[in-house]
């Protein structure tokens, strides 16, 4: 034991340093726009995680004497329609937008990839049933589908998460299935089948690891679509409900300041744009063709 | 697509006809399945239309009576068949909020939405084609990169940011355009143009970006083919290669891209019509959601899905007709 432990540690250290050098390599290969994207994405992830701690004022506190104030030393992004600090509300809104969208995109990509793997390794009729269902769901425009779901079930935070995930699962499934079906024809998968490996093993150990990169790129796109969907819904007043507010709700609640060109309405809208553009730039800079298999909101 | 290699002309036309018929059948089947999905989701609604219509103070007897009158006490599959029958015969039921037939409410709004979509397509398609072909022609140059960055940004930006910025610039600062679109019968040309300018611009922004990116991809895909290499080796100018050799072959993917991007217009309309207070189907649907007017919502959702499937069908048909192996002759 005492003899093997240092060797083990050594290999751990070596592996860590190899990882670090690979990361550095990857970073130096990244184009300028890709680096901008990466910076924006990291910035928003950090702000969503610790933002409320940085907020100078309480989210619901009425702190400014004037409504729709411009930039000032006390209120960096001015005040909103009720005299609250825009920066504080933005930081808390970012948490809802990024958090909800991240969870929903994870769920959508996970379910899409999972269903795709099931469809690929299962008997033909299972594939037909799942594919037919997903094809049907794909032909309902995503905003329309989400509106019908909101009308039927309401829009609590949990429901919004599930609705967004359900709306973008069919798209994720389509892409993952196309990848999985291709991989299933590969020789090494056929060899594994001939060896008598179980379906679960083939799906999890042979196919999944080889489709993970495009699926991750697709996950980034789903995230963007979901951010746009959720903030669109909130903008319509059908998404995150008060007193909670995501970035879309912030735009909506300050819409009366549009006539004055208030910062309170521009700041959250531009915040959303920097987040989604950042993710898009990053995905676009990823190596390998075919990372953008389909667009489509 | 395109397996059938006709021996002579007429069988090619036949094959194309059969393919188109099969696509049509598949689209109709999908529409039927979509109607099942939409009906199922809206039938899961906790509480029903009768309770909704009578309000909270209604007696249980009154609710039961109304439920019976509206046919809500029947099992779900019977209600679905009745609803579908109504859909096919044009009887879309009674709007709960407007208390008039859904068909009438929609008939008043549909032309407006079609006008908006038509105008947007008329603006977006030529611009997108130009940007897409230009950036394919000059691919990997500074121009291409600038255009790529621009379209990438436009794809990612929410419609309401474009709309609010447009209002801010053109209505508030410059005072050129009205911030809401009023549709009246008696409007003159100039007035109509001014009213439509901003909604069309906003919708076109998102659509153009999508379309241009897909057009570029389609053209570049063709550029890597052997026949293009041949044309280049013959010493033809790049412009001629693209316009004479590549474009005719890229028609099918480009039309496909157009149809797909025009379908994003359907989603964009939901936001844009609401912002500019435009009396179209999408803003009607948003109102139906807020007032939980299910018959109206179902009808609107079906219209959107039908429009989407129609666009996809059109793209498929164009692809089939553009394929010389299937065109006959």
Mean pLDDT of chain A: 83
Strand residue percentage of chain B: under 5%
Rough outline of chain B: globular
List the uncertain runs of chain B: 1-9
Count of helical regions of chain B: 13
What order do the SSEs of chain B take from the amino end to the carboxyl end, as H and E? HHHHHHHHHHHHH
**Radius of gyration of chain B, Cα only, in angstroms?**
24 Å
Give the % helix of chain B: over 70%
Distance between the termini of chain B: 18 Å
Most strands sheet of chain B: none
Shape of chain A: globular
Q: Classify the secondary structure makeup of chain A into a structural class.
A: mainly alpha
Which regions of chain A contain 5 or more consecutive residues with pLDDT less than 50? 289-297
Number of strands of chain B: 0
Q: What is the multimeric organization of the chains shown?
A: heterodimer
Structural class of chain B: mainly alpha
* Biggest β-sheet strands, sense, barrel of chain A: none
What is the rounded distance between the termini of chain A?
A: 56 Å
What does this protein look like?
The complex is a heterodimer of chains A (297) and B (329). Chain A has 297 residues and is mainly alpha-helical. Chain A is 72% helix and 0% strand. Chain A has helices at 4-29, 32-54, 86-121, 124-138, 142-153, 157-184, 187-194, 199-235, 247-253, 263-285. The longest helix of chain A has 37 residues, at 199-235. Chain A is globular. Chain A starts with a helix and ends in a 12-residue tail after the last helix. Chain B is an all-alpha fold and 329 residues long. Chain B has helices at residues 9-43, 49-54, 60-70, 76-89, 102-137, 142-156, 159-173, 189-223, 226-233, 238-275, 281-290, 294-322, 324-327. Chain B starts with 8 loop residues before the first helix and ends with a helix.
